[in-house]
Amino acid sequence: MIPVNLLPHRAQRRAALQKQFIVTALGMAAVGLGIVVMVHGFFAQRIDSQNGRNKFLTDEIAALDKQIDEIKILKEQTASLMARKQVVEQLQANRTEAVRLLDQLVRQLPEGLYLKAIKQNDSVVSVQGFANSNARVSTLMRNLEASPWLESPSLVEIKAVRINDNPASEFSVNVRITRTQLEEEGGGKATGQKSAADSPNGANGSKG
């Protein structure tokens, strides 16, 4: 007998095409899902790698910031030590300044002139006192100018007053201390002796 297919040919073909389409669609969906998973995994790996790099950079930056803070502290400590060193050196260099100043004022003080106040502000010394006449004040300024340890005397004020019913001149003079490299002890003594010799009245001006 000859077999006869009783199913409609078109319906059979349509069903086969639908089945093929469904299989192809499922395959494409699976391929697409696989591609999405692979791309997601790839970018997730790249993100994790970049996050690791960012964390490494953050840790290194934090370590550098800490080192910078330590360097700043060291610089501040160094600056503080240098400032203290300069103060100590200045004190050491000028440890005899007050003694030398008083010695020079006594040596350069002419007769007939009396001091009432001496004030020092850094290298500027303010000298106030009384004199028998204006000429005594002029002599004092010349003596101060000739001193090797004093310089630039300037008359601030001079006025006539009376002391015990005697006419006198009240004066105020500013003079600067010559701050140079400290000489050796022997050289300083020799200079002091020379100043005493050059003074017109020597140690006679120790009055007042």
Question: Can you walk through the features of this model?
Answer:
By secondary structure, the chain is of the alpha+beta class. The protein has a domain of 114 residues: General secretion pathway protein M, EpsM (Gyrase A, domain 2). It has four helices and four strands.
How many strand elements?
4
Q: How helix-rich are the residues, as a percent range?
A: 55-70%
Stretches where pLDDT falls below 50 for ≥5 residues?
181-208
Q: State mean pLDDT (0 to 100 scale).
A: 79
State the gist of this model:
With 208 residues, the chain is α+β, with helices and mostly antiparallel strands.
What features would you highlight for this structure?
single chain, 208 residues, alpha+beta, Gyrase A, domain 2, 4-stranded antiparallel beta sheet, 21% strand, disordered C terminus
What is this structure's SSE topology?
Elements: H1 9-93, H2 97-108, E1 113-121, E2 124-131, H3 134-146, E3 150-163, E4 166-177, H4 185-198
Antiparallel strand pairs: 1-2, 2-4, 3-4
